[in-house]
Amino acid sequence: MGDTITATDSPEVWDELYRILAVHRRRRVLDALRRTTGGTTVDELVARLAETAASGDTPPDRTQLRLELSHVDLPMLDEAGLVDRNPESGRVSLTGRARALPLFSALQNGLVGTPLRTGRPSADVSTPDTIVEEESD
Questions:
Q1: What would the pLDDT profile of 92-106 be if each residue is shown by its tens digit?
Q2: Which of 24, 42, 56, 99 is the most interior residue, by most CB within 10 Å?
Q3: Which residue intervals define the domain DUF7344 in the entry (predicted)?
């Protein structure tokens, strides 16, 4: 996949991104990385994902989460060009390609489809005004 993605990219490129982002945890990883400066470590990501689990959810097993992130989710996000993994430093960061995607909603602190810490969307939503023209009969 290239450095950027546009509406003119092939349907296969978009299908692959949709497949990757269909997993809620991967969207939460991108959201957690968006909130960091200079990236973070896998252990810090595990802690962040565990502490921000939606209220009422059973806290995830951190060892299992670390394994799934390290061996499934992060390699897949890296292959798609959405994260950079530095094996020497152990740091993971969001790429410019991920930042350019229309992933982040108008919610003040959230990613589309990613509940905030309370598990509910923020009531403070600032979206552009939309003009809807009514059809006349």
A1: 999 988 887 776 654
A2: 42
A3: 19-92
